[in-house]
Design brief:
The complex is a heterodimer of chains A (209) and B (204).
Chain A (H helix, E strand, L loop, with lengths): L3 E6 L7 H15 L3 E6 L14 H4 L7 H10 L3 E7 L7 H8 L2 H8 L8 H5 L2 E7 L12 H11 L2 E8 L2 H4 L8 H29 L1
Parallel strand pairs in A: 1-2, 1-3, 3-4, 4-5
Chain B lengths: L2 E7 L7 H14 L4 E7 L14 H4 L8 H10 L2 E9 L2 E2 L1 H9 L1 H9 L14 E7 L12 H10 L7 E6 L14 H19 L3
Parallel strand pairs in B: 1-2, 1-3, 3-5, 5-6
Antiparallel strand pairs in B: 3-4
Classes of the chains: A alpha/beta (209), B alpha/beta (204).
């Protein structure tokens, strides 16, 4: 059975450092036989969350646009690789605008209790955060991690790993970074194998018992 | 010269908890004839997100023409800048994040072009305020928002020590903040202390 890996690029800058790093991760996954798809948020039409809380009653977002379609795609994927550069110590406004739209899923989980992910489901769905930052500060990704954690928690993914590279300004871009692209490729290769194994184990177990 | 207050209400929900908190802080300033208070609801301000093109490093301005053309100048002119936001998914909402990211033009001016943000006589006198509300009552619910906010004030020449924070957790549904035991009093107290501090700094 094919493992599906969905890459989401949250950078407004096409084919920049972050998207290139995501590409390398996805190439690695493809190399391991996964079915790979990349979505670039900049090319979609969606508005940010309005905070109307209508979804708290219905479990549906009142705004019908590309964001809802992409959430359906996320829920159908085995691996979610979400990528954003660090702008002003956080993820981009594009990605934040998209993540805030997950409120309807949060409402299904915690208010309406119509959505539930078993531990087993979460273990079989891996989330990867891919990011670059211009600054070399060690703490430059710290503001992003909790937001990405919120995304993975709400959509039923285990926050499995990061592929992050800081100090882009000093390196002169991702292509001049000594290890990042290789690391991304290898982690992409690895995740497909890990998920495949989990899937095989699951089907065997289902057959046996 | 009147004291200029620029207040950004960052929530997409008008008149909700974070905006109410902002209104409480602004209350005594609005009542004071020495102040001109302008409140901007970011959801109506037409501020697009930063494109990451880095053109501002050369041009000293943004290539996008939108609401930020107005607020860029107002940010420079203001004596106190306030920003309020609800916490969504552990961060500021995307509307204030767009404003914060568009401050990149100030960062380019300051660090790449080495130009001043405010005239020398106003440097070090401005004050910043961050107000936030969160539905969750976790103590760390504001932690991921604060670094972005600090950067925003930093690039517009407001020092860390000159930023005040009032962050209220555990308020979710519209109007919940009205029932909070200390929020209103703390916000009004903050408003009065800002008035006293800025008058002292501007010798008014």
């Amino acid at each position: 059975m094919d493992i599906s890996v969905l890459g989401i690029s949250g950078s407004p800058h096409r084919h920049g450092n972050t998207e290139t790093l995501l590409d390398s991760f996805l190439e690695g996954s493809q190399n391991s036989g996964a079915a790979v798809e990349k979505v670039v948020l900049k090319t979609l039409q969606y508005s940010p969350c309005r905070g109307c809380n209508a979804c708290h009653k219905t479990g549906e977002c009142i705004v019908k646009d590309d964001a809802v379609i992409l959430y359906e795609k996320i829920l159908a994927s085995d691996c979610l690789a979400v990528a954003s550069p660090i702008y002003t110590m956080g993820i981009t406004a594009e990605l934040k605008g998209f993540i805030d739209r997950q409120q309807y899923l949060w409402a299904r989980k915690f208010i309406l209790k119509t959505l539930y992910f078993t531990d087993d489901h979460i273990k079989r769905h891996k989330g990867i955060f891919i990011s670059t930052a211009g600054l070399g500060w060690e703490n430059v990704f710290d503001g992003a991690f909790p937001v990405i954690t919120a995304l993975f928690n709400t959509t039923g993914f285990e926050y499995y790993d990061n592929v992050i590279a800081n100090n882009m300004d000093a390196y002169g871009g991702i292509n001049k970074h000594p290890t990042a692209l290789k690391e991304a490729f290898e982690k992409g290769e690895k995740i497909a194998g890990v998920l495949e194994k989990l899937k095989d184990k699951g089907s065997l177990k289902n057959g046996k018992y | 010269m009147p004291i200029k207050i620029l207040a950004f209400a960052g929530s997409p929900r008008r008149y909700g908890n974070s905006e109410t908190l902002l209104d409480w802080v602004l209350g005594s300033m609005i009542a004071d004839p020495d102040f001109i208070v302008e409140k901007v609801a970011l959801t109506e301000a037409d501020i697009h997100s930063c494109r990451g093109c880095n053109a501002c490093e050369k041009l000293n301005k943004c290539i996008q023409r939108d609401g930020m053309d107005i607020y860029h100048d107002k940010i420079i002119a203001a004596d106190i800048i306030l920003l309020s936001s609800p916490i969504y998914c552990m961060g500021v909402a995307s509307q204030p994040k767009a404003l914060i990211d568009r401050a990149q033009v100030f960062r380019s001016r300051k660090y790449v072009l080495k130009l001043p943000i405010v005239p020398p006589e106003r440097k070090g006198k401005r004050l910043g305020v961050f107000l936030a509300t969160a539905g969750q009552n976790w103590s760390y619910v504001f932690d991921a928002a604060v670094p972005s906010v600090k950067c925003f004030f930093h690039v517009i020449d407001i020092k860390d020590a000159d930023i005040s924070y009032l962050m209220i957790n555990g308020v979710d549904e519209k109007g919940a903040i009205e029932l909070h035991s200390t929020a209103k009093a703390d916000a009004e107290k903050l408003g009065k202390s800002l008035i006293a501090e800025i008058k002292k700094r501007l010798s008014i």
